[in-house]
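In the design runs reported in the main text, the only information available to the sequence generator was the tokenized backbone. The following block is the verbatim input for one such run; it is reproduced so that readers can re-run the procedure and compare outputs position by position.
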């Protein structure tokens, strides 16, 4: 469970924005993630019309895929460029409006109303703003947040989910002494302590 030199590593919002601006987005998957397809039944648990949350969503193609199945998608992303690229790449018309509770934040919503993406820091969100969710697809969020912010992140996520929700979490396993992250190494024991 040695996290090597990663414990103190901090990636700023500006660095994330720069990754998008420079097109340095190796974390984006054009085809969608095979693990979501593999474990879709676990996420949906026989239910339809779910509210599904995408933390640090980027321009994940899975948002459109799940929306097309009849689910309501809410995402949060710091990069306005990523959000706008999502809508343009899927030829989805959208409207843009401020989020009164969060200074400087914007919410981009498909005109069909089933995809709402918040452009702000994830830590500015709360259930009073975005409501509660039946499912979470965390493909690259926990492994992207700074190690020192994991407890804060997990507490927020627990606050955003309904009692009977499903939470799909993808992490990466490697020797943290050989890679500074992100993605960060999150040991299984830490996932247990964060989420119970």
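Verbatim output:
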């Amino acid at each position: 469970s040695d996290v090597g030199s990663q414990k103190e590593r901090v990636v700023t919002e500006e660095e994330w924005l720069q990754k998008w601006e420079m097109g340095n987005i190796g974390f984006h998957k054009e085809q969608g993630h095979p693990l979501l397809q593999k474990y879709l039944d676990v996420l949906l648990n026989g239910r339809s019309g779910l509210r599904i949350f995408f933390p640090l969503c980027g321009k994940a193609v899975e948002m459109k895929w799940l929306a097309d199945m009849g689910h309501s998608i809410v995402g949060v992303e710091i990069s306005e460029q990523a959000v706008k690229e999502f809508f343009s790449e899927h030829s989805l018309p959208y409207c843009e409006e401020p989020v009164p509770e969060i200074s400087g934040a914007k919410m981009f919503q498909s005109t069909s109303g089933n995809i709402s993406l918040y452009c702000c820091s994830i830590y500015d969100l709360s259930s009073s703003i975005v409501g509660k969710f039946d499912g979470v697809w965390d493909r690259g969020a926990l492994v992207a947040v700074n190690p020192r912010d994991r407890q804060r992140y997990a507490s927020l996520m627990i606050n955003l989910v309904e009692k009977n929700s499903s939470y799909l979490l993808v992490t990466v396993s490697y020797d943290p002494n050989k890679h500074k992250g992100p993605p960060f190494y999150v040991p299984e024991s830490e996932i247990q302590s964060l989420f119970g």
